[in-house]
Structures are given as structure tokens and as C-alpha cells.
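FAQ: What does the model actually see?

It sees only this:
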Amino acid sequence: MSTDRYQTPLAERYASREMQYIFSPDKKFRTWRELWIALAESEKELGLAITDEQIEELKANKDNINYDVAREREKEVRHDVMSHVYAYGVQCPKAKGIIHWGATSCYVGDNTDLIIMTEALKLVRVKLINVLDELGRFADKYKALPTLAFTHFQPAQPTTVGKRATLWMQELMLDLEDLNHVIDSMKLLGSKGTTGTQASFLELFEGDHEKVRALDKMIAEKMGFKAVYPVSGQTYSRKVDTRVVNVLAGIAASAHKFSNDIRLLQHLKEIEEPFEKSQIGSSAMAYKRNPMRSERIASLANYVMADAMNPAITSATQWFERTLDDSANKRMSVPEAFLAVDGILDLYLNVVDGLVVYEKVINRHIMAELPFMATENIMMDAVKAGGDRQELHEEIRRLSMEAGKRVKQEGLDNNLLELIAASPAFNVSLDDLQKSMDPSKYTGRSKEQVEEFLSETVAPVLAKYKDVLGVKAEINV
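And it is asked to produce this:
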């Protein structure tokens, strides 16, 4: 590794090798050659003077890219596409004259971008599915474990650990719907020519409009796409990049929310992210167990959400059939959004796979608050026994304030049950009240909701994608 120049942390620290390869120069230039072959094959099938021998020569040299020749040529002509056309022609002397026939640079450049983004979206989907699968296991395991729920980060009616996990899953399920929509709607630019009018191809086919239309469709099919965008300028609409990065930003937002909850739970000592045997939490405070993976999820998520502005601005500021001020921004904003989300999902999977749940701490916290939360049930039972609802509500309110003052100002235990038992308004013994302090009585349908959600909503999705399950994340640092 070179240490005397900038290295992007997305490649060095966060993104997987698989995602990095999708956006690598090698992947791009190999795809260019596949597109040139698809163009030549389609043109031959539609009657242009291209031989089988030329096609075979192109195929024989598809993966043997002579990068040195292309680099030297680019120094002379200052044009990356024409440099690679030249380099391919050096290897394919018989086919040299028909490479890139009728096409403009965006034929390879933009079609390749669409192909690469589609492949990257599918990798994101694989990892998202595996995060859902792992979260589902966690939710099912802890579906009945009562825990304090919070509104405004203040103790509220209890839920279960598993039910809370389904909230994280629900957001990812929404992301998956959006992701599938974007993947299913991806198309190729096809062969549209310099300003999108297909004039060069109409000339090649001597005015035969149907052959020009067929060329578009044939190239798409050869490259694995169902369709091309019906109209374009020289480039595909940069609105496509906006849609793609927006769905990545949505995934980032969901992951950020999860990381917030985990960090708060780790502060409460209820649930912790994985902490390895030799891991150091702080250079000064040796006892610390910082939630560094969750913090990194949040950090990368912030980057992706901010990065989503870039394609939107680029799309908004394109002029007529094209300008080149999209180029530098697009080269960075789109790949880096994918690399960051790839890192986020690897971290998400790693954290969920190693979550540690401290059930006794969870129970201690819920039992300290449960008397307050049980007051509604206690009041309803007293009304059933003949009490006045309004008078009982006021008595509960007064006693709750007294018990709360004891806890907050004096640092003592919650004695609300004792206060209620001593009040003649309720006519209930302390023993009976204590018997009612089973947290599972106050979690409503949490357990059942988890079971229903996993079986009715998640299971069909996991069954559909069963062939991609089993991914394990590797964290570099």
C-alpha cells in the first residue's frame, strides 16, 4: 500500500472487496468491451457488413485488456474511450474498423454506469436480506423478554426486546421495497447517438427506423436488461442517479436509527454490540467498552445522507441534451454512496450477529418502573370493585408524585406499591399488588406481534431470497 498519497477510507477501511470490484477500472473496461461486442453482434444480425470472424476476434480478446497501450494512447489523444477503442483494435486487427461503429462515447460510458449501478444495487439487496434474516433470529429469540419501552427517552409502557427489533426490521423492509422498485425499473441507455436522436444509426441502416429500434432492444437483451430508456439526450437522465442514491440514503437512515438505539441501550447496560477479547475502548480509560461499530454505522450513514444531495444537484443543473459538469461529481458521489452503504450493512450484520443481551439488568430496570406503569390496571380493578374512577385517578396521581419524589430527590427505592396498599381508597393488600408485578402482563401483544410479523411479512421475503442467505460480514477495523 502506498503511504505517500491519499487513500480513500471507504476502500481501505469500510467497503468489501466485492463492492470495490464492481466500481473498479477493470470492471468498467471489461464492460466496455462487452458492450462493443453486443453492438457489433446486433449490427451484424441486422444486416451490416460485419463477419463472424470479426466477432470471434473481439470475443477472444475481451478479457485480455492491454492497459499499457490504452494509457499511452490517452496521453496523445486525451480521450479515454477512443484510447480503449484503439487498444482493442491493436489486439483485433480484423475487427478494428467496426469497433464502436455508429456509437458515441456515452454508449459505453453511460451504459456501463447503468450496468454497474444495477449490479451494485443487487449486492446491496443481498446484504440487506441477510441483515433482515439475522435480525429476525434475534427478534424471535427475545420475542417474549419484557423490557422498558421509551417515548421521549422516558420510561413508557413495557414492550419486549424482540418487538423492538421488529421496529428496526420494519424500516429495512420499507427500504427493500424501494430497492426492489429501483432495481426493477433500471434500463439501459442503449444506442441513442450524439444527442439522443439515433441519427448515426439511422444513417447506418439507410433510413430503416425499425432496425434502429431493434438495435436498442437487442443490445439491452444481450446485456441482461429488459428495456432501454425510450428517449434521452446524449446521456441517460441523471435523475436515475438521484433515484439510486436516494434509496441508498434511505437504507443509511434506517441503519442510523438502529445504531442510535444500540448506543443508548449500551449506555443503559442492557444490550451491547460485540466487543472482542483484545479490543481497546479508550487509550486513557482502559475499562471502557465503546460502541465503536454502531458509531461507525452512524458516521457512514451521515455521509451517505449528505451525499444524496450531489446527484440531485447534478440532475437539476444539466443543460439541454448534456453538459460535462456532471462528470467529476458523478465519478465520486455514486460509487462512494455504494461503498459507504456496503460498509454500513457489513457493520449492521456484524453487530446484530454478536449482540449481547443482559437480561438481569433489563429486568432490574423494568421492575424499578413497573409500579408506575401498573397504576392503570390497579385503578381499573379498583373501579370494578366499586370505586370512583375520578377519585381513584387523583389518588394514584398524588401517590405517584410522592413515590417519584422519593426516587429522584432522596435516591431511595420506588415505594408506590406500599403507598397504594396503605391507601383505603384502593382496598388492596401489598401482597396482592406484588403478585401483579409480572412484567409480561404489561407487554400487550408484543410477543404475538413478533410472531405474526416474522411469519406473515418477513418469512415470505426470506423464502424468495433463500439462495443468498448465509452471508457473514468481515470487518476490517
